[in-house]
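Appendix B, Record 12. Input sequence as logged:
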Amino acid sequence: MEGVNVLFIVIAFVLGVGLCAVANAVVLKRKQKRILAEAEEKGEILKKEKLLQAKEKFLQMKSEYDKNVAERNSNLSRNENRVKQKETELNRKMEEIQRKNNELGILKENLNSQLQVVSRKQSEMDKLQAQQIKKLEVMAGLSAEDAKAQLIDSLRDEAKSEALSQIKDVINEAKLTANKEAQKIVIETIQRTATEHAIENTVSVFNLENEEIKGRIIGREGRNIRALESLTGVEIIIDDSPDAIILSGFDPVRREIARLSLHKLVTDGRIHPARIEEVVAKTQKQIEQEIMETGKRTCIDLGILNMSNELTRLIGKMKYRSSYGQNLLQHARETANLCATMASELGLNPKIAKRAGLLHDIGKVPDNEPELPHAILGMKLAEKYKESPEVCNAIGAHHDEIEMTNLISPIVQVCDAISGARPGARREVVEAYINRLNNLESLALSYPGVVKTYAIQAGRELRVIVGADKVSDDQACQLSLDLSKKIQEEMTYPGQIKITVIRETRAVNYAK
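Logged structural output:
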């Protein structure tokens, strides 16, 4: 019985194992089918995606191809139009050349015919000239060769006499030149002690307490010194000189304004472009007041009354001017006193003479200096401010520009010569130098758009400030070129002159 049970157990086990195997086989088969179905589905999806990508790539390539073809066609069309235009232009030029060739042919024919006419007339003229020469020979009883010889002899005698006359003039001129050169040598010998006079007339020295102030005056990237030079028109030289700055400029008023402005800035300690502009403006007003005070004090010292304010101001400006190296105010005062003394000796009115002597060089110091002799300009100023006819005539006639009409005029002329002719009183070199710089600045001011001009570095540089709203950058470059050409054509100067045109824009507003 136990054996049968075991047998049943074995058979049941075998059947269970078989059934499990069959069930596993069925499950495995179903899984395989499901995996195959999923793989087929994914393959279809991947196939569709690849087809879409290929189609997009194809469309993109087709679009680029169409674009390239269109661009190539456009370039071909443009090139074709350009070739057609050039062909048309070439045909037009060929027609123009052909037309000009035809015109030249016609002109050549006309010229040949005119030459033939001229040649025929020339031959006729030669025949007539030969006939006239024969008639003249018969009438004069001389042959053409004899007449030519006589003419040559007469011309030779005339040339000899003219040459002798010219030699005599040259000798006389040489004598005069020798006298002038001798006088010049004597004057220069006397003036040996005043060799630094020109430097004193063009240079001022500003002393500093220490070297650190130089850096503050220069400013960051040179802004302060450029602003000061632009506003005053004076060149500021900062070198290795200990505790000193050199102010260089031919106009003493500008140098004084620059010196006083520097003194105020250094004392105050605030040095920047806006402050510099404010201080320079105040200093200019202060100098104007000092000029007026100087004029009034001069008139009071000389006992001259009822002088107009403008003439008083011009008299004060004489303090900052020089005539051939001689201070103009000192020269005018000296001439006034000499005129008064001489008029008293001759029994004339010394007050009128003194007034004329003081005002005789007033034409050298006006603000705007027209191209007139200073004597004529001074006379016009005196007439404008209601001076007496005797004074006006004495001013205008002291260099013989007009005729003298009263006895005061020759007195002023003589006293002016006495004051200026003494040894060491004047130096012509300085006057010529200052006139050259004035002419240089006036030449630049004649151009439109120019606001200010400054001749610096002893006339070796001309700075021209133009209005930003009137002159463009290109026009500024052209202005610099035109100025250089005009200076070369119209002026005489040593070395070379640098022309710098400055154009800047400022925006200013006020917060209230």
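Confidence is low (pLDDT under 50) at residues 188-200.
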